[in-house]
Amino acid sequence: MEPQIIERANHPISRRDIDPNVLKVLYRLARSGHTAYLVGGGVRDLMLGRRPKDFDVATSAHPHQVRELFRNSRLIGRRFRLIHVFFGPHNIEVATFRRQAEAVLDNADLMIQHDNTFGTSEEDAFRRDFTVNALFYDPGTFRVIDYIGGVADLEARLIRTIGDPELRMREDPVRMIRAVRFAAKLGFEIEAATRAAIEHHREEILKASRPRLVEEIYRTITLPAAARALVLMEQLGLLAVLIPRLSAHLRASGIETEDTLTARNLAALDGMIAAGGEPGHAFVLACLFLDLCRASHESARADHDGGLLGELRGQGFARGDTEHMRLLIDAFELFHARARRARRLTRRPYFPEASQLFNLLAPNYGDDPAELARFLASEGPHEHPRGHQPHREHAGSVGGAGGAGGSGGDAPPGGRRRRRKRGGRRHRERRHRAGHPDTAPASAAVSAAEAGAAGSAAHTAHPHDGAPAASHPGHRPDGDRSRAH
Predict the structure, then answer these.
(1) Which one from 45, 124, 129, 146 is the annotated catalytic residue?
(2) Are 354 and 327 spatial neighbours (Cβ–Cβ below 8 Å)?
(3) Alpha-carbon distance 471 to 216, whole Å?
(4) pLDDT tens for residues 216-229?
(5) Annotation says 153 is catalytic
(6) 19, 54, 115, 138: which one is catalytic?
(7) Is 129 a catalytic residue?
(8) CA distance linking residue 204 with residue 206, whole number of Å
């Protein structure tokens, strides 16, 4: 099949818009006698005048040949082999041209299990998912190569599968979410036959691996067009299959999906991402599920089999992300209610993120983030500033110092009295009075020491009374009475 060739004068792609490291990879492969093209979403975005997030390279060189050309590379992948060429913290993905794998019929299961058969550039174009992602750019001739009508679909702003959409959706069900993601991201419509295939085979999506599904969901709802992606997933029935609890909540509202508070929350998230924000997974999940938790009066803490967290973990979402989401949603409720417990959250490590979530979404619920800031800055009638412990005096102490009968400075913080240890002088005296002779010498020595200390103190206090100093075991002629005490 002869491809459509778009000359340099008829397309907007310039090498100045391509990462210099990507050009290095392309040119080295070409100098070594291999065919090498810029492919995929990078070409699509450049054709639309957008800035690509990353660039992919496809080549006729086999993985081991690419590995020999680039010492700064690594072989990865199990389903099919890829090469990552590293330039500092960034990497460029290089793949060998592949042809469409033949599906193995096993109880009518058409899913692709092995996809590592090398082919030509034309075969590589036909094995891709959508027409707009199957364009090649040749850096040697500056031409765009179109085997399957991708340029026409870019102009018509359509997402269309390559080949039979019924078959392609069953081969790789994750393509259903990818269709939604590209349509939302680019502002395109999903072509009618492709849309019908998604609606018909939406249950097949549960056959895909859970890690891939979770990854695609995150990639879809972290777009600057997440609200539109939510609407498309609900319209196509994908949300009811992937997250039935959220789909039921949207339908129960009785209004159009784009007018629900969940969609408005995602629209606020869109603005944050468009402004350069990079929210974490837990933050994104909190935006997605906040209104569901509030409307159902269900705390995000519910972690039984029928609870929200249990359902999400069953779908493959990480425990760390769902637990963090729970903390953020619970914090939102405390902030919204101006509860006294909300002030304690300022000491929590997740407070900055919880505060950011409230500032972002509170206006959708008629709340003013500035009022929360004033509330947190004020001090309650029975609360104390952060880090301050109120002073408590103990019985028998003066000014916090130890006195007779009080614990004094030995009392631990918070005002709790330290428990007296068993033993000591009083315990020995009680045992002696009870008739334990083994304690008599010690008690006698203590009594003699006390008597000596008293007599010495009296002699020092009245030096001219002429009374001789009593001789006793505690008396020290050098005047050092510290041991007697």
Answers:
(1) 129
(2) yes
(3) 94
(4) 999 999 999 999 99
(5) no
(6) 54
(7) yes
(8) 5
